[in-house]
Amino acid sequence: MESATAVFAGSALALFGAALLIWTGARALHRAPVAHGVSPVASTALTTLFGVVFLGLGVWVFTHV
Fold it and tell me: For 1-37, what is each residue's pLDDT tens digit?
């Protein structure tokens, strides 16, 4: 039962992190703002950082299943 919960959590974290990185990359490639009203460099950097963190957490959860 606990492994099913861990697989769900790992999947959710990894998918969110990957989607956040893909979305940020697409916005940066088209030179579109990542967040309105915020510095483009800061918003791109923070969004990339959080995408990597969530993807890493998802992988970490999968290694502990």
Answer: 478 999 999 999 999 999 999 999 999 999 999 999 9
Taken in order 27, 28, 32, 35, the sign of the CA dihedral is positive
Q: pTM higher than 0.85, yes or no?
A: yes
Residue 44: φ, ψ to 5°? -65, -40
CA geometry: angle 23, 26, 27, nearest 5 deg: 85
Q: Do residues 49 and 26 touch, judged by C-beta distance below 8 A?
A: no
Both structure tokens of 40: 């483009």
